[in-house]
Amino acid sequence: MTAQAIGPLFTDLYELTMGASYHQHGLVSDATFSLFVRNYPPHRNYFVAAGLEAILNELEGFRFSGSDIDYLKRTALFSDRFLAYLKDLRFSGEVFAMPEGTIFFPGEPVLEITAPIIEAQILEPFLLNTIGLSSMIATKSARCIHAAGNRPLIDFSLRRTQGTDAGLKVARSSYLAGFMATSNVLAGKTYGIPVSGTMAHSYVTAFNSESEAFSAYSRTFPDNSIFLIDTYDTLEGARQAAAVAREMKKTGHSLVGVRLDSGNMAELSRNVRKILDEAGLSEVKIFASGGFDEYKISAIIADGACIDAFGVGTKVGVSADAPYLNIVYKMVKFGGRNVRKLSSGKATLAGEKQVFRETDTDGRYLKDTVGLRSETMPKAAALLEPVMTAGRCLRPHPTLSAIRDRFKANFACLNDRFKSLDTPPAYPVALSPKLETLQTES
Prior knowledge:
By secondary structure, the protein is an alpha/beta fold. It has two domains: 13-137 and 325-441, nicotinate phosphoribosyltransferase (Alpha-Beta Barrel); 147-317, TIM Barrel (Alpha-Beta Barrel), CATH 3.20.20. It has 16 helices and 19 strands. The strands form four sheets. A seven-stranded antiparallel β-sheet has the order 13-12-1-5-3-17-18. It has a six-stranded parallel β-sheet with strand order 7-6-11-10-9-8. α13 links the parallel β10 and β11. α10 packs parallel to α11.
């Protein structure tokens, strides 16, 4: 199952007014636009490409509905001739893109679109919104995965993500980057992501005691129970959970785990681990939630926490420390003429491009080169692939599991020094001599 189509009105007004003027003045040639991130947010040194599948699905179904045309007519901004053009408009262009799960760096086009200029222009907000959010969250999630080591992470962000669409994209992007599961049931249905959850404090307080709450839950879910133990007193909650777990064993069932959601979790987890182990429950896992991101995960592990898995919510779901990417979509070629922008601090590179990645004999990344699409570099892999021609996808979308595998392989090839959470060194990215020469000619 895929997410519902957005539609071409998911755009800024000036995209349509520019389109109307292009149409009036006969500017209908093909244009190439390049989508890239200008620079890093604080403490970042790589990005994870995500969102391409949603882009391609939207482009294949791109069309203005009758109600869209009626609405635009009511704005009194557009001629009947232009509205008639929009009524029959379909995306007819080509797309080159990095596959989802690919690691990329600032200045590298993650996607390039070539299409008649009106088609390519209208798509700008949708492309930036979709790739920007998905890649931002996949990057944040990758940092959490690195910080957690081999400990599983679960997406708990739904109630804090900024809108229903964001809730779905966060679940998909975090799973793409290696999260084990999500609490978001619709994301589970839509994307085939495993779903996971425990209980809320309200469940515990609905019963007369923790012991009664835990016993009731264990009878409902005898093989899938995780008890939330910090509603009143965490250590006493652990003792109550252990007592119920021993009763479960008598009937051939096992408690999966207990969850901490507050307090000094490093110290509490060590004490809870001791309580469980002394009760003969060494197999019961300790889960933790409550304001986790890569920084808190790293700190609590360094403090000797006995935590087996983390529920990660708000700070990842909104990428709290870096809540946006400086992602842009700029025209680099029009009507066969290479074009560039020279604005101070916002200059762009003309020409259709390719990103080439060199690796050592073990496949570890050495450096990237942004060059012309027409170039070849025998010792380097070309990262941008043709994925759509004449408005149609060239191949079926990879499964989300396959994208996870691609990311895992990509991430393993990035040296750990570039994964530092604080002050990572800059990964080397250069321009090819031919691309540099083109800039002086444009």
